UniProtKB/TrEMBL annotation:
<dbReference type="Pfam" id="PF07398">
    <property type="entry name" value="MDMPI_C"/>
</dbReference>
<dbReference type="InterPro" id="IPR024344">
    <property type="entry name" value="MDMPI_metal-binding"/>
</dbReference>
<keyword id="KW-0413">Isomerase</keyword>
<feature type="domain" description="Mycothiol-dependent maleylpyruvate isomerase metal-binding">
    <location>
        <begin position="20"/>
        <end position="146"/>
    </location>
</feature>
<dbReference type="InterPro" id="IPR034660">
    <property type="entry name" value="DinB/YfiT-like"/>
</dbReference>
<dbReference type="InterPro" id="IPR010872">
    <property type="entry name" value="MDMPI_C-term_domain"/>
</dbReference>
<dbReference type="InterPro" id="IPR017517">
    <property type="entry name" value="Maleyloyr_isom"/>
</dbReference>
<dbReference type="Pfam" id="PF11716">
    <property type="entry name" value="MDMPI_N"/>
</dbReference>
<dbReference type="GO" id="GO:0016853">
    <property type="term" value="F:isomerase activity"/>
</dbReference>
<feature type="domain" description="MDMPI C-terminal">
    <location>
        <begin position="159"/>
        <end position="255"/>
    </location>
</feature>
<protein>
    <submittedName>
        <fullName>Maleylpyruvate isomerase family mycothiol-dependent enzyme</fullName>
    </submittedName>
</protein>
Length: 271
């Protein structure tokens, strides 16, 4: 969401997300352009560059169908269909990628922010979810493409901050904190995490001492603190490279929290 629209009405917020989907896709296309379709993607080692593009374009189309289905669940075959990207011409995929982003933006605007839509999230079943989620799906894979092609990667501060806000909502989903037999307990006394941006005045403090995680903008001391540029804080939660970020305190707690809050990424990787 751009700073100019912060605090605006729901229609304006959704329109911002539709614009961001298209904008982030344009930046992804720039990162891929001229690359080797068979180049491995270091952060997604099972994919080459062509498969990464196929995944993003297919996911945009799937999200557009999910928005248009008005609450019905849609098959995720489009998300899974990455095999055809192995040897494709990246120049041909460029237009296909742009078309998928445009389809999603159109579907979001036609639906409106409160239109019912199936989502994998608890308590959020509207088209707005897909605008926000696909913005950061595209941002993340733009980073992956940049890692594969050696291109620079950056995210506007307002966009990166909203991405971290979105991640914090995942931390409150029951699957992210309820006991699991294969992992240590997440909640407990004295457990808190602090994410502190070094290039802007932004903090996120996650409190794990209650019966469910909560987060605030406070900068009180925590069991583990992660400090770094805002873009790298966003990449930290997605477990992408963060060369200048510093972690102090209970690194094991951070790793456990990232594992638990990233449960939906694990499901995506296994699919």
């Amino acid at each position: 969401m751009t700073p100019a629209r912060a605090g605006c009405d729901a229609e304006a917020v959704l329109d911002d997300y539709a614009e961001q989907v298209v904008r982030q896709t344009e930046l992804l296309r720039e990162a891929v352009r001229g690359g080797d379709v068979r180049a491995r993607v270091p952060s997604c080692p099972e994919w080459n560059l062509g498969q990464l593009v196929r995944h993003v374009g297919g996911t945009h189309r799937w999200a557009a169908e999910s928005v248009r289905a008005r609450g019905a669940e849609v098959s995720d075959d489009l998300v899974e269909d990455v095999g055809t990207g192995v040897d494709e011409d990246l120049a041909a995929l460029d237009g296909w990628l742009a078309e998928g982003a445009a389809r999603l933006a159109d579907a979001l605007r036609e639906a409106g922010p409160d239109a019912p839509a199936w989502t994998p999230a608890e308590g959020e079943s509207t088209a707005r979810f897909w605008g926000r989620r696909m913005t950061f799906e595209t941002v993340l894979h733009r980073c992956d493409a940049a890692l594969a092609t050696g291109r620079p990667f950056a995210v506007e501060a307002a966009v990166a901050a909203d991405g971290l806000d979105e991640w914090m909502t995942f931390a409150g989903v029951s699957e992210a904190y309820q006991p699991r037999p294969d992992l240590p307990p997440l909640l407990g006394p004295g457990r808190a995490l602090l994410f502190q941006a070094t290039d802007v005045d932004r903090t996120w403090r996650v409190d794990l001492t209650g019966d469910r995680p909560t987060w605030t903008r406070a900068s009180d001391p925590a069991a583990v603190t992660v400090r770094g540029p805002l873009t790298e804080l966003l990449l930290t939660v997605y477990r992408r490279p963060t060369p200048t970020t510093e972690t102090t305190g209970d690194a094991a707690l951070l790793d456990l929290w990232l594992t638990r809050t990233g449960f939906w990424l694990e499901a995506e990787d296994e699919s």
